[in-house]
Amino acid sequence: MDKIGVIGCGYVGLVTGVCLAELGNQVLCSEVDGEKVEKLSLGVSPIYEPDLQPLLAKNLSLRKVEFTTDFNRVIREASILFVAVGTPTTTIGTTDLSQVNGAVDRILSMATGEKIVVMKSTVPVGTGSKLSRLFSRKRSANISYLSNPEFLREGQAVRDFMTPDRIVIGGDVPELIERIASFFEPLKAPCIRTTSTNAELIKYASNAFLATKISFINEIANLCEEVGADVSVVAEGMGLDPRINNHFMRAGIGYGGSCFPKDVKALKQLAGHNGYHFELLSAVIEVNEMQKMRPIQKLRRHLGRLYGRRIGVLGLTFKPNTDDVRDSVGVDLAKLLLFEGAHVTAFDPLGLEQARKVLTGVDLIEDPYLVAEGAEALVIATEDPLYAGLDWERIRGLMAKPLVVDGRNTLDPADLPDGFILEQVGRRVKRIISECGEVGVAQVGLGTTRRVS
Ligand code: UDX
Known about the structure:
Rossmann fold, binds uridine-5'-diphosphate-xylopyranose
């Protein structure tokens, strides 16, 4: 049986390693961070990811998965090497391949016998062809290269790995593609067998398309606010057309995370480097940046200058169910508010520890009610159902001004008590009032107040 090596224990590497072990394989994972390896070897996941912890503990106790800082050992013992290291963006927008190159150099210098390098990391289109050529020049070992992009989403990574929409494997040698495909056979997903260039582009194009959908619906949402339409209803009506569908049609204050922002920029750069100006992606990126500013504009409209104002931010991770704050809109928003001179307090159910590493000057509080205390506005930055379940009657009593800017449309206006002014995305601002003992809603246009029944 081939032993599988996984290089890098981030979200992708760790989930890949643990899930491949769960599928019955023998897996050895390497990670440079010794502290992480210590935790993992005790069966403790260093990241929050639903369902990962029990799978890790189980496969560790069955000795199906093992963790080490000794990269050389992985190269020695494993015949199949899944590379899942980070490929962040450089300050000039290109992909930082230093971790991939580091892994490749080590494999080139250490490998003997037959090895298959399988790239899980998102790498620029053309990387596979270059690395295949590089590996083929090595005489003392037979190293092959395959591309196997990962499409899992944080917060549901284990589920996405175990029930994928598709498996994509790119390479030059059909037998090797089949060998890797066999590992995913039990998942019963459609498998695209293709070139590494196609595989690499499938990954970028998929993420860029999803980001485009989000920017598109966000622009429709902004238009809805102008014309008095409701983006949720518009998106629902559009999404019933299966050619459009209702996925990634939730308007908000922009996409974030470790993938979309970086991959959209990387695809635009790639096009540019190949002499093609990818106009659409420029707009997707610009719309996303502008969308992050909209809560600030809404706050200013109600409060005037934000200098010295106490503003609470609810949600700092880039989406719910994760502790990941990389490229998070909530973090950006907290920073923007600090630049405005506001006194910013913030809550997140899972991300406070990570947020502490990237935010200074923000009071990070473990209790959303303390964030509300004395606040002149609350901004909801992640789509966490937790916020709808808060005691809004209590919150109204705690706040200095009852203004809520709901950047993800998590609240149902009908559930809010009297007195709140609610700014949502793609809907006109609402003032919650009681009429005949029932909660009614009045729309407040820009500067005007119109009652609707
Ligand atoms: C994404 C891709 O979905 C996944 O296939 C790829 O492997 C990695 O990148 P992820 O970054 O985990 O996954 O998050 P995702 O759930 O896709 O959300 C990304 C961002 O888009 C979040 O900030 C989210 O809030 C935002 N989003 C998503 C919206 O604003 N509206 C939507 O309708 C959906």
